[in-house]
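Hi everyone,

Forwarding the result from last night's run.
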Amino acid sequence: MAANYRAVGRARSEAEFIANIGVVIEEADETVFWLEMLVESGIVKLAKLKELLSEANQLLSIFSASGGTARA
């Protein structure tokens, strides 16, 4: 997610920015998915991942808002 977000800052056009932030949103969502899967499968207890999952969801919200603003 971080490397893709760095690429967003280096976008050469608005279209490239929008495309790159879309990749970041996908990666953030995938991160949330895998963290949820770890908890739901019982591999890791929610207490261990609660803060990390919260942060991942916050980042997903921030990136999604940024993508929406860029498309508007």
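The mean pLDDT is 96.

Cheers,
N.
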